[in-house]
Specification:
cytoplasm, 360 residues, alpha/beta, six-stranded parallel sheet, five-stranded parallel sheet, 9 helices, elongated, Nucleotide-diphossugar_trans, Translation initiation factor eIF2B subunit gamma, translation initiation factor activity
Length: 360
């Protein structure tokens, strides 16, 4: 496979649409858009086959919304995390009728009468998640390139493309001879030869219908790690999903089952002293738990030291933090390289590191 990496100018605040315009000359056919924050085992091959078999202009991967995210507590916040649902409507053939964010509507979701007349059965879903995986046909990609106001795919392009299906327009499929004709017009050319070539060409001049489909995969594992709560959730599930990253995880047997449960992952050179325990936690390398320290449902990065009797619940602890004895933390985020003094008690707090700020 030949890969071509193109760097986006670092000073530009671009959306995906802007980035596609930047590399437009490199795109010759269908384009696959994969978000960099997705973790999934869905079959891209099956999605591609589905896209081509439907002669789809746009195919969108939809997956069930993870229930674990709905009930999760957000470290560092006293409020429950609010998730913005996608409102997605499709007909019986999974042709997309509507795909918008819940925030785009108030109390009702409007549908035009002519759309309902064209589709005898329309189902509206609010429990499916747009995974930000798209396959776009070249002629629809040209729509993004021409319309420079389109910056984002999710918020601007998708609703516009789905709506465009019902505007009575078709995307013209350029005749393969068009490029040659344009070139010849700038040089010496023979009209008779051009006429003969156009007449005898076997290439189709038909227009292609703009049509958008949903590809639904309810069996795959799929999550987008684009929020703090999603980051915490996937780390807590990491021991069961190592295969998604092509890594074979072999659990260490150096710790007693009473100290480290089956849902926890510990990095190299970790040390647990008497009566300390780690439950439902992902822990980095070179961490140390003193006597009776208890870590539950948390993410611990490298080189963290816990003093005697520390109790940590549902927290994110960055690298290099030192906890003195008998600290108690719940639902909190601690930035890197800090010392938490003896008997400190924190609940729903965020402590930034001294050298940098954390984006929440």
């Amino acid at each position: 496979m030949k890969l071509d990496f193109v760097a986006i100018p670092k000073n530009e605040d671009w959306g995906t649409g802007d980035s596609l315009r930047y590399i437009k000359d490199k795109i010759k056919s269908h384009v696959i858009i994969l978000s960099c924050d997705i973790i999934s085992d869905f079959s891209l091959k099956k999605m591609l086959n589905y896209h081509h078999s439907r002669s789809s202009s746009l195919t969108v991967l939809l997956v069930p919304f993870l229930k674990s995210l709905k009930d999760a507590e957000v470290p560092g916040s006293k409020k429950k995390c609010k998730f913005e649902r996608d409102i997605i409507a499709m007909n019986s053939e999974k042709k997309l009728i509507l795909i918008n964010s819940e925030a785009d509507f108030e109390e009702t979701v409007p549908f035009k009468l002519n759309i309902l007349e064209q589709n005898s059965e329309v189902k509206v879903h609010s429990n499916l998640m747009d995974a930000h995986v798209y396959i776009i046909r070249k002629d629809l990609l040209d729509f993004i390139i021409v319309n420079e106001h389109i910056s984002t795919l999710k918020g601007e392009f998708l609703p516009a493309a789905v709506k465009k299906q019902f505007q009575g327009r078709k995307l013209h499929k350029p005749h393969p001879y068009d490029a040659q004709l344009c070139c010849d017009l700038n040089e010496n050319f023979n009209l008779k030869n051009i006429a003969i070539d156009l007449t005898t060409s076997k290439c189709s001049t038909k227009t292609e219908e703009l049509i958008c489909f949903a590809y639904i995969d309810k069996k795959c594992f799929c999550t987008r790690v684009n929020t703090v709560v999603a980051f915490a959730d996937i780390n807590k599930k990491i021991s069961k999903n190592f295969s998604l990253m092509g890594v074979e995880y072999v659990k260490s047997h150096q710790f007693l089952k009473s100290q480290v449960d089956a849902d926890s992952v510990l990095g190299e050179n970790c040390e647990l002293l008497t009566k300390s325990s780690v439950k439902q936690t992902s822990m980095g390398s070179n961490c140390k738990l003193d006597e009776k320290a208890k870590i539950t449902n948390s993410i611990i990065m490298d080189n963290v030291i816990f003093g005697k009797g520390c109790v940590i619940q549902n927290c994110i602890i960055c690298s290099g933090v030192v906890f003195e004895d008998n600290c108690s933390l719940k639902n909190s985020i601690i930035g890197p390289d800090q010392t938490i003094q003896t008997l400190t008690k924190l609940n729903n707090e965020i402590l930034h590191g001294s050298d940098s700020l954390m984006e929440i």
